[in-house]
Amino acid sequence: MSDTIFALSSGAPPAGIAVIRISGPEAFAAVTRLAGELPSPRRASLRTLRHDGEALDRALVLVFPGPATATGEDLAELHLHGGRAVVRAVEAALAASPGLRGAEPGEFTRRALTNGRIDLTEAEGLGDLLAAETEMQRRTALRAAEGGVRARIDAWAARALRLSALVEAMLDHADEDDVAGEGDVLTTVQRDALTLAAEIEAVTAQPPVERIRDGIRIVLAGQPNAGKSTLLNALAGREAAIVSPLAGTTRDRIEVPVMRDGIAYLLTDTAGLHAAPADIVEEIGIARARSAIESADLVLWLDDAPLPTELADLSHLLIYPRADAPGREAGATDRLSVSAETGQGVEALWNAIAALSAALLPPSDSVALNIRQRSLAEQSAVALHAAAAQDELLLAAEELRAALRAFHRITGAADVEAMLDALFGRFCIGK
Q: The pTM is what?
């Protein structure tokens, strides 16, 4: 029998209302000791909470009998006044109840997963939903939390299972020497396995969902004193980087998250690139700048010089900086003229960034996979290709089993214990 856990599931007090959630076999007994007679299931009722004869608060009490609850266990909620002293007093009373303890981060959701109320993809989506800061992050995470990824994986797994069943049935009747039947089954498996693999590869080839969650990485690059830090501040809308007329002010990478039009960006200012660094610190800064450029989703090249050949294959925008400076007012025909000082061209630059970003993000109506899900989906596609390449049913059967194992690992039906602690560790205590 599992422990009964409790935690504050609403925001940190003080607040208008504080919600304490209790889940486990002793949940109803603990609430009875505090509130007296339990209300009818799923109906809120006002009760005075008492401990050792002392009134703690007047609260709404709700009880939800398992297994049809968020955690799959008996679940109760106490809706308290949201003062710190009230919450502390009720938590202390619960901690004194036999069989109760405070919940670990993500433990309520972990119990939901263990008890089959959600699968692993929904738990991952819920974690992303809790951390969502932009509208795109919210929509993408909500689709996963509500089972969008699971539905896609289940559909793939059902098709692979049908092929596996065909092969296994033929193997079970191998002693009947139905050579013609075996050939028909092999043809079906080869055709349908290739079709399914192609569909999976079309999804895994989409831009990674991590760009929605972590932000599109935009690196500002160019020679020293090109105006990178000034432009970073203009794009960020605040003084995030030190600006001075001295060349080489920026020695290290400066990363600034920006949310704009529902999309997350991570702007990175870098040391100026040139061939003769003055000291070891500047040399390290240039090396870090090159490393940032290599991992960038989009490079803003601020320089009058041509784009270096090593950057030509990267997604980039050519910027004509300091367009307000004397002698530079004419601009450049092949670059976007920008003055971070006056704001000239900054909005046009954001529009250009947004246009390029559209191709760097998964389609808005798609079910996007995270890196773990994508890796396992790719493994399933490899196994399906291998199944299609086999001329013997026994070998095809083994490859189809491998594809199914990969699908089951995506949804958490198998082999997931090793990554659960890391997943739920980023949840809040009351979730």
A: 0.74
